[in-house]
Design goal:
The complex is a heterodimer of chains A (317) and B (443). Chain A is mainly α and 317 residues long. In chain A, 72% of the residues lie in helices and 0% in strands. The N terminus of chain B is likely disordered. Chain B contains 20 helices and 13 strands. In chain B, 49% of the residues lie in helices and 13% in strands. A 5-stranded mixed β-sheet of chain B has the order 2-1-3-12-4, with helices on both faces. In chain B, strands 8-9-5-10 form a 4-stranded mixed β-sheet. A two-stranded antiparallel sheet of chain B has the order 6-7. Chain B is globular. The chains are: A mainly alpha (317), B alpha/beta (443). Chains A and B meet through loops of A and helix 3 and helix 19 of B.
Chain lengths: 317, 443
């Protein structure tokens, strides 16, 4: 048998080293492999987290390193949890999260269901649909500000056209109106990220074996019944995964909304991530923003844990 | 080694040495950080003279205005060595001095005969001093700027428009001298058709993310009686920030936004104002003076079509304007401070300042701006001079970024989103700012 590189390496290993390695238990070898990863994780994940928790109980400001740092107890947490403005940003984030997930799931699943059929131009259409998610959020935000422009924007003209001229294009402003701005950002995010949900749903739909549908046809199950009792339950784990990914992403949504509205009008579209960034890197209230980050972390972690448990249960069914 | 060989070796060493010196001079570079805008391009051209004279190569790091403060303050706060010279915004001077980002220039000025009395006093206070009103200098005034107004002179001069205005308001259509007149004119032009195109009254600042709406609102509020604090008692803001005059000023700004801006102008700042004005969308435009040279050479609004206005007066005849502009500082983290100081020394020279003005840079050297020919040198020169005489600036306190974000939120919430009243917005601002100063231990 020809000598492999591993054999060559073993042959060339000095006797003293080989002896030492032979003396290691399986557990020790496992630790030897895992330790660098654990150290890396500790350095870039766990240590910053612990450091952030520590800072959250202080009045530290990163732009004033020479000032004494005072321990302020729970004052930062108390300020955050009793600040109506911060609760408002939480509400704005919840609104954005709920409606983007709702529309992306409904439209994404619908598109996947339609595109799953075999027809001419299927591949081309799929490619065209997924184009928006390949664009940079900054670019998307920028050109949607033009689309929403009341005088030259295509969106406003489309609304005028669809309403038969009863709503004039320049009579409303999507980004400057308190009522419309929250929906304006939902529309853009839905436009951009529905293809992602569609792709995951498509993977789910294509994983369902044809013979299940053939058996259902033999049993004379209606299309409606096939859809609700076979398609939906079998795609559900995929759909839930898509919701998890999009939910986490949209909870930390920043670039698109900054580009579109800057959080305005007023604080109408001020999401938690934008507010957190302003506190941390514009106002430089490091202690306060650390407490804010910890609260958000606990919220996301808690919700994600509950959700993953539910996802596992669905998978087990 | 014979004599000939020695001579050749000595010559080789000398040549190598000379080449080394030349390479060393060529290797010397300075990085200057500023905002990405027209004056920065002019400075690149101007700095070629410095490169030729000193042998030091200039590099530039320009960041667009909406991200300028964010990017550069992060750079300073992290002790970054990217910038040797910083043309930082006027409000940064407090943080620059107290946090040790800038080096103090008093000794350097004294040693090189640079006298702050030779610069326009408002710019020395605004761009160079910290604490304000004390002879502690952290920058050299580099670029004077102030908020003013431009108007479509060609529209104002049209007989049919003049007649229509006179019929509606019973007086001639002349450039507004008071904010009340400005409102009338903005209302008059709002929705009017000119050359077959619908135009709007005014473009004003409404930007939410960085500093836009605060610069615009403050520009109006000063002339309505707004004060940052009790002159007798620092940081005492009750009754000054939210005085009846200030409330009336904020109400005025909202009324102007509601009645007389173009649809969708809910997040506009300098760039959007320039676009709206150049495209013939608006009759009046609020903007910093740095935009004016660009209008003069624009095919649509240049060549005498644009008039320039000092900020109008408030109801009591008070007249102030929001200061813009910046000073040039040496970053304390730079390893090339000597070269950076050399640049400042060169930049302060009268002939360089003269050229700076001719290239579109707004010099603040008195020998330039007080030259009898200055007022006639550009159509906007006199307006610039008059405006610089009435400037006020936002807090330059080390906590300015927090104070600014609080103002952005309160003003945008009232003016654009239409939430609450002007009184509530300013009362809220007093609360926010009080909290900031309490946290800083100043109250």
């Amino acid at each position: 048998m020809a000598e492999t590189p591993i054999d060559r390496l073993a042959r060339n290993t000095p006797a003293s080293v080989a002896h030492r390695v032979r003396g290691l238990s399986d557990r020790a070898i496992a630790w030897a492999f895992v330790t660098p990863t654990i150290l890396l994780l500790l350095a870039i994940n766990i240590f910053p987290l612990i450091w952030t928790i520590r800072l959250s109980f202080t009045n530290f400001r990163a732009n004033r390193p020479n000032e004494p740092v005072e321990f302020v107890g729970l004052r930062n947490y108390q300020r955050i949890l009793t600040d109506p403005d911060i609760w408002h940003t939480m509400q704005a984030t919840a609104h954005f999260l709920f409606w983007t997930l709702f529309f992306q799931v409904v439209i994404g699943f619908g598109l996947a269901w339609l595109i799953n059929r075999k027809f001419k131009g299927n591949d081309l259409l799929t490619t065209l649909i997924v184009l928006p998610m390949m664009l940079s959020p900054a670019v998307v935000g920028n050109f949607w500000t033009f689309l929403y422009q009341p005088q030259i924007g295509l969106f406003n003209y489309a609304v005028e056209f669809l309403t038969g001229g009863s709503v004039a294009a320049s009579s409303f402003t999507m980004l400057g109106s308190v009522e419309l701005a929250p929906w304006a950002i939902v529309i853009v995010d839905t436009w951009m990220w529905t293809p992602f949900v569609m792709l995951i749903c498509l993977a789910g739909l294509r994983s369902i074996p044809d013979y299940i549908y053939e058996a259902a046809e033999v049993d004379r199950a209606s299309k409606w019944r096939q859809f609700w009792t076979m398609t939906v339950p079998l795609v559900l784990p995929f759909l839930m995964l898509a919701v998890l990914f999009r939910g986490i992403e949209n909870f930390k949504m920043f670039d698109l909304v900054v580009q579109l509205t800057g959080g305005g009008p007023g604080d109408t579209t001020l999401l938690t991530s934008i507010e957190l960034k302003r506190e941390a890197f514009e106002k430089w209230r490091t202690g306060f923003s650390s407490a804010y980050a910890i609260i958000l972390f606990v919220t996301v972690f808690g919700l994600a844990s509950i959700y993953v448990k539910a996802l596992n249960k669905v998978k087990e069914r | 080694m014979n004599v000939g060989t020695r001579a050749i070796a000595a010559a080789a060493v000398a040549v190598a040495g000379m080449a080394g010196t030349a390479a060393q001079a060529q290797d010397k570079t300075l990085t200057l950080c500023w905002a990405a805008w027209d004056p920065a391009n002019a400075l690149v051209e101007l700095s070629k003279d410095f490169e030729a004279k000193s042998g030091i190569k200039m590099k530039f790091e320009f960041v667009p205005w909406p991200n300028f403060a964010d990017r550069m303050l992060n750079e300073l706060n992290s002790g970054g060595k990217l910038c040797d010279l910083m043309i930082g915004d006027s409000q940064w001077i407090g943080a620059g001095a107290e946090s040790g980002h800038y080096i103090k220039l008093n000794d350097f000025f004294a040693a090189n005969g640079i006298d702050m009395a030779n610069f326009v006093p408002a710019t020395v206070t605004g761009y160079a001093e910290w604490p304000k009103g004390t002879p502690n200098y952290w920058a050299l005034p580099a670029f004077g700027d102030v908020v003013g107004w431009t108007y479509r002179k060609d529209w104002f001069e049209r007989p049919e428009i003049q007649a229509a205005f006179k019929e509606q308001y019973g007086r001639d259509l002349t450039p507004p001298q008071t904010f009340a007149e400005l409102m009338d004119i903005a209302k008059f032009f709002q929705g009017r058709e000119i050359d077959g195109k619908k135009v709007y009254g005014a473009s004003i600042y409404t930007e939410r993310g960085s500093e836009g709406i605060t610069m615009g609102v403050m520009d109006v509020l000063y002339s309505f009686g707004f004060e940052y604090q009790n002159p007798e008692k620092p940081y005492d803001m009750q009754g000054f920030v939210n005085s009846p005059g200030a409330v009336a000023g904020l109400e005025y700004y909202k009324a102007l936004y509601d009645c007389c801006t173009a649809p969708g102008a809910s997040n506009t700042y300098m760039g959007e104002g320039i676009d709206a004005y150049k495209s013939g969308q608006v009759a009046l435009q609020m903007n910093f003076a740095f935009t004016w040279p660009g209008f003069e050479v624009d095919p649509n609004v240049g060549g005498g079509k644009t008039g320039y206005l000092v900020n109008p007066a408030g109801p009591d005849g008070k007249r102030f304007a929001q200061l813009g502009g910046q000073g040039i500082s040496v970053v304390s983290y730079s390893e090339k401070q000597a070269d950076a100081l050399e640049y400042i020394k060169w930049f302060a020279q009268p002939d360089v300042q003269e050229k700076w003005w001719s290239m579109g840079g707004f010099s603040t050297l008195r020998s330039v701006v007080e030259n009898p020919s200055f007022a006639k040198s550009q159509p906007y020169a006199q307006t610039y001079l008059d405006s610089m005489a009435i400037v006020k600036d936002f807090w330059a306190d080390p906590s300015y970024a927090t104070l600014l974000q609080d103002a952005q939120k309160r003003f945008h919430d009232y003016v654009v989103a239409g939430n609450g009243t002007a009184q509530e917005a300013l009362d809220g601002l007093v609360q926010d700012w009080t909290t900031v100063f309490e946290d800083d231990g100043k109250l």
